[in-house]
């Protein structure tokens, strides 16, 4: 009995990872250092997004993004070369 190449390799039998799209995230904090010995640094907002869901939407590693800002909203668009 022969098996097809697609089913004989263990990786072919592994289930595909489930892509979960987050519904919310929290704005974190980053830090800009002070400009001199007597100047304190400044806390600034920071966002970090990661996951397979980004790739599923076309955001591949190394892609260039256009950032469109408006009051209370940020839109990210992949720049097609």
Layout of secondary structure:
Elements: H1 5-8, H2 10-13, E1 28-32, E2 42-46, H3 52-56, E3 65-70, E4 73-78
Antiparallel strand pairs: 1-2, 3-4
Describe the protein.
This protein is of the alpha+beta class. The chain has a domain at 25-78. It is built from three helices and four strands; from the N terminus they run ααββαββ. The protein has helices spanning 5-8, 10-13, 52-56, and strands at residues 28-32, 42-46, 65-70, 73-78. The strands form two sheets. Strands 1-2 form a two-stranded antiparallel ribbon. A two-stranded antiparallel sheet has the order 3-4. Strand 3 (65-70) and strand 4 form a beta hairpin. The chain is elongated, with a radius of gyration of 21 Å. The chain starts with a helix and ends with a strand.
Summarize this structure as a short list of keywords or feature phrases.
elongated, single chain, two-stranded antiparallel ribbon, two-stranded antiparallel sheet
Shape verdict: elongated
How many strands?
Answer: 4
Cα(first) to Cα(last) distance is: 49 Å
Give the class from helix and strand content and strand pairing.
alpha+beta
Provide the spatial order of strands within the biggest beta sheet: 1-2
Total of helices: 3
- State the order of secondary-structure elements, H for helix, E for strand: HHEEHEE
Contiguous uncertain segments of 5+ residues: none
Helix content range: 10-25%
- Percentage of residues in DSSP E strands: 25-35%
User: How much is the radius of gyration in Å?
Assistant: 21 Å
Largest sheet: 2 strands, antiparallel
Average pLDDT rating = 84
